[in-house]
Amino acid sequence: MKTDVTAEDIGMDPGTLREIYRQMSRIREVDKGIQAGLSSGKFMFTYWPMTGQEAIPASIAPLVTKDDYMVTIYRGIHDQVAKGVPLKGLFAEAL
């Protein structure tokens, strides 16, 4: 019985899989940074954590182009991070 799953088994190239992982890590780090800023009092805004919601936007992001539209919800910071919205502007708007 085969137990190891390869990129070929799921039909995705290794570069795409690495990009998905990179995006998931980036989203998680942004989430941790926001939570740390709020906990320390450095930030003051309403925030709903995105913990556990990293996989979907990270998986979709490498498959969409500039010409695609995105509609997100009020908890959509993870979508914006995955799509490549500059963090400086994202934080400036939130603050």
How would you summarize this macromolecular structure in one to three sentences?
The chain has 95 residues and is an all-alpha fold. The protein has helices spanning 7-10, 14-40, 55-60, 77-83, 87-94.
Low-confidence stretches: none
The total count of strands amounts to: 0
Oligomer classification: single chain
Secondary-structure element string: HHHHH
| Terminal Cα span | 53 Å
**Structural class of the secondary elements?**
mainly alpha
What is the average per-residue confidence, as pLDDT, rounded to a whole number?
A: 86
Protein model, in words:
- The chain is mainly alpha-helical.
- 55% of the residues lie in helices and 0% in strands.
- It has helices at 7-10, 14-40, 55-60, 77-83, 87-94.
- The mean pLDDT is 86.
Topology:
Blueprint: H1 7-10, H2 14-40, H3 55-60, H4 77-83, H5 87-94
